[in-house]
Design goal:
Mean pLDDT: 83
Order of helices and strands: EHEHHEHEEEEHHHHEEEHHHHHHH
Helix content: 40-55%
Largest sheet: 6 strands, mixed
CATH architecture of the largest domain: 3-Layer(bba) Sandwich
Strand content: 5-15%
Number of domains: 2
Number of helices: 15
CATH topology of the largest domain: FAD/NAD(P)-binding domain
Shape: globular
Strand order of the largest sheet: 3-5-6-7-4-8
Low-confidence stretches: 94-105
Number of strands: 10
CATH superfamily of the largest domain: FAD/NAD(P)-binding domain
Radius of gyration: 29 Å
Distance between the termini: 88 Å
Length: 434
């Protein structure tokens, strides 16, 4: 029998809420604490520091919710989502009492050592909106959207980009990612914003009028992009951090929430494994109090071992997706314009479609549509890159190799005489320099 335990979840975002569901499904007592008021209440005022771009849900997050033991959860979530089938590149042409009480709580000596790294990438982001078409069409529900709702829209630039992600009300949440220096320049001269968009993101001013661009840029905060890595993720048997608390990442792979939801699935799979091992261990003590104390101690030990295993298992994967998200920023704003990048992507997609037996897949496909560990995705992607380079080099060199073999076969004596002559000349030249 698995010992009933108390779980305290701090943070009621998607990751914390899913963790609470996992724990409650296993019969544990669950308490949830959240700084913000109930976000389901339309009168709730969002806090600036809790802003986020639209969330992307992929296979990892779906799989984590699939294992939550709530059959209608996915049905409810899917009902509030819009499928994105690909990228579209646009070229140029509660009441706060608990929080206040926590400030007075003595936490002296309650810190744990933690390896921590926080990086700012020198880019600020600002939010804009594309409004929906006012007249709805019963014949075509997509008529409410000004552009295709089934794509992630990207206007790339070498050092910046503008993206648009659909919302279920027909609008698009748009984000401008811009280096700090250029952001400050626009802050000094906001009247130049429409001209800036026309120059770098053609077509946007047809979707968002210049006046609205200026208003959004002046009204909305210009926030930094941060990447956080840390280790370990646990403290003995008492605490573990998941999601953004452990690995906040830049949003360019759409994996922040998905990685956090996957954290929950991985954590509870490890906890379940150790709990099952404990339940199979017989207790020999006949004294109820002693047996209870023994069971509690065993549970704490098993939990500590499980949390340590979770840290060992998850840190490499979390660090990998942090790095991938940063790399994908370069890909989205610049690499999509590179012929070399497009050639490799085309080759990998063709091999994935027409030679599936090779197990060849793009890195994006492995990350977004499978549950393979992030660290393994990186390793396999690097291997595929090495294979492509080797094949390319072989194709380039093969005509010369074939020609040399054919010439050796047809004219062996001439090849031998030529080689001997070149060798003698090289030796004589070397002696003359002495």
């Amino acid at each position: 029998m698995v010992l009933k335990q108390k779980f305290v979840v701090v943070g009621a975002g998607p990751v914390g809420s899913l963790a609470a569901l996992y724990a409650a499904k296993r019969g544990h007592d669950v308490e949830i604490y959240e700084l913000r008021p109930d976000l389901r209440d339309p009168t709730t005022t969002l806090l600036n520091f809790t802003r986020s771009i639209n969330l992307a849900l992929s296979e990892r997050g779906i799989n984590a919710m699939r294992h939550a033991g709530q059959p209608r959860l996915l049905e409810h979530v899917f009902g509030a989502t819009i499928p994105m089938r690909g990228r579209m590149i646009h070229g140029r042409g509660s009441n706060g009492d608990l929080y206040e009480a926590a400030q007075d709580y003595d936490i002296h000596g309650r810190f744990a050592q933690l390896n921590y790294r926080q990086d700012y990438i020198g880019t600020l982001w600002c939010e804009f909106h594309i409004k929906p078409v006012k007249v709805r069409s019963d014949e075509n529900p997509n008529a409410v959207f000004r552009i295709s709702p089934n794509h992630l829209h990207i206007w790339p630039g070498k050092d910046f980009m503008f993206i648009a992600i659909p919302s279920d009300d027909g609008s698009f949440t748009c984000t401008l990612f811009l280096p700090s220096a250029q952001t400050f320049a626009l802050e000094k001269n906001p009247a130049s914003i429409p001209e800036f968009f026309d120059k770098h993101f053609p077509g946007v001013t047809e979707l968002i009028p210049g006046r609205e661009l200026i208003e959004s840029f002046e009204r909305n905060p210009h926030l930094p992009l941060i990447s956080v890595k840390c280790s370990p993720y646990h403290y003995k048997s008492s605490a573990v951090i998941l999601g953004d608390a452990a690995h906040a990442m830049v949003p360019f792979y759409g994996q922040g929430m998905n990685a956090g939801l996957e954290d929950v699935r991985v954590l509870f799979s490890i906890l379940d494994k150790h709990a099952e091992a404990e339940s199979n261990s017989p207790l020999d003590d006949d004294d109820d109090d002693a047996a209870s104390a023994s069971a509690s101690a065993a549970a704490a030990y098993g939990r500590e071992v499980a949390l340590a295993e979770y840290t060992t298992n998850r840190v490499p994967d979390a660090h990998a997706i942090n790095d991938l998200a940063l790399q994908n920023y370069v890909e989205m704003r610049a690499s999509v314009l590179s012929p070399k990048y497009r050639l490799r992507k085309w080759l990998e997609e063709m091999m994935s479609v027409y030679l599936p037996g090779l197990g060849w897949q793009t890195k994006y496909s492995r990350v977004s549509f499978e549950n393979q560990r992030y660290s393994e995705v990186v390793a396999q992607s690097e291997h595929q890159g090495e294979v492509l380079v080797s094949v390319f080099e072989a194709l380039v060199c093969s005509p010369f190799i074939v020609g040399a073999v054919w010439l050796w076969w047809k004219q062996p004596k001439w090849i031998a005489r030529t080689y001997q002559t070149w060798t003698e000349k090289a030796i004589m030249a070397a002696f003359e320099r002495l």
